[in-house]
Amino acid sequence: MLMLMQPGAVYARQSLKFAAPVYVGDEVLVQVQALHIRASTTKHIVKFGTKCFTSDSDNLLAVDGEALAVLPSLYLRQQLNQVASQSLAPLNLSVSMAGATTTSSALRRMESVCRHLLPSSPPVLHQNLLGAMRLESSPVIIGGMVLDIHAKPSMQPHPGTTVPGMVKYVSGGVARNIAECICKLETQPFMISVVGNDMAGDFLLKYWRSAGLCTDGILQVDDITTPIVSNVFDGSGELIAGVASVGAVEKFLSPTWIYQFRLHISTAPLLMLDANLSPDSLEAACKIAHESGVPVFFEPVSLAKGSRIAPIAKYITYTSPNEIELVAMANSFSPPEKYNFVKMEQSKNKAKAVEHLFEMLSPAMFFLLENGIKFLLVTLGSNGVFVCCKECTSLMDQQKSEMMSFLTPLLEKLEGCFPSNMLVDLPREGSSRTCVIHLPAVSASVVSLTGAGDCFVGGVISALCGGLGMMQSVAVGIAIAKSSVESEANIPDKFSAATIADDARRTLLSAKMMWCK
Description:
Layout: E1 10-18, E2 27-39, E3 44-54, E4 61-71, E5 93-98, E6 101-102, H1 104-113, E7 140-142, E8 146-153, E9 165-172, H2 174-184, E10 190-196, H3 199-210, E11 218-221, E12 228-233, E13 239-245, H4 247-252, H5 255-259, H6 262-266, E14 271-274, H7 279-291, E15 296-299, E16 318-319, H8 323-331, H9 350-370, E17 375-379, E18 385-390, H10 395-402, H11 409-415, E19 434-439, H12 452-465, H13 470-485, H14 497-509, E20 512-516
Parallel strand pairs: 7-10, 7-14, 8-12, 10-11, 14-15, 15-16, 16-17
Antiparallel strand pairs: 1-4, 2-3, 2-5, 3-4, 5-6, 8-9, 12-13, 17-18, 18-19, 19-20
Helix pairs in contact: 2-12, 8-9, 11-14, 12-13, 13-14
Pfam families: PfkB (PF00294)
Organism: Oryza punctata (Red rice)
Protein name: Carbohydrate kinase PfkB domain-containing protein
């Protein structure tokens, strides 16, 4: 790999697995394969497969790994000044080495390889303004961009007739809302989605560009209708009924389209998927993330679509269902329906309500943990969140050792505001315990509930990418959700670091261990 380096190049990452012994004096065949190339006007990010084979008759694989390099150009030798544009394909570069001696055959192979390195139309990578040395890595969000139509009557609705009220267009969609929230928390997301070449699509893209967000991953298609969701709310902001037309997300966010952004996913600190994707696309995205050790956050979206988690559960690190979505997800593994949930009446005794919810939901929570989910974040509305995990691993810490720090200015303000000695904590790595911790919601003056769940997920993801711990990140998510319900918009225009820190601190100090065995 050192032979591929040039002045100004950055050898960013290397993973190795040692499969067979190599002894002093042995001759080794080294194979370098350029797997993926991402080009901008100033640099090229190349992911290589790196293998070493013994040179005896067995040709045993001795070392297997991957490397990531940032190259100022793709020229391997200064005298090569013309490079043919070819379609991107896997490339093989084999070099026979004995000690430190490299044969002229290897050099010839290196020269021939550069004639195939450039893709014909390299997509542009937008620089992450949060840090010039982050390898353009951003949390990747895949899912729906939707035009929401909100209808709120000013009097009690009557079947069979219209009533006066307010109707407005709002930029929406679970994945889009989460990405916007992450952006407003000063972390730059990379969105992969689809819209139509129509009024609604132009409306969504105009807003996206006005926020300074990259549209490289957003496919705009002629002759389709942009996904639209029409919702009717009651006077208190609760959803009465809604109709969603989001078939374009399943049809056009195909594995092929997602695969084009493999480098974004494989170098991301986290991948978020919403369940509007087709099962094939969900699996394709999960496999790309799994190959590179990228944590996956699954957002179930709805009761009907949350069941799509079953085939991909082994890849999922985090998921955030509400009570009924949790039960539906658990039942999707084992029909006929084994788990159930009966919504209880609103109780002024919060502690009693939380105990009742735990007794009712714990069988489904434990079942999902046994089936591969690493962290369950069960949202309970005004009753807070259950954080459930088994054999906790330091997934984001591992990512931080591989990626540059992702800490944002907002999260820097929050980091020192949390209690240093938590009353409850997650199990240590390697523990066989299953733990459920309850974090209460923060009291709020409710204006609209439509963006609360998305803001919770956006807050959790932004905090995790910023290096905060699991419990702190969930507390930040709860504080962000509180800001959302006090705003008319799906995502508030601004977040106050001081308010978020204060609300998150109060939530953490009131956390309670429900189960740890």
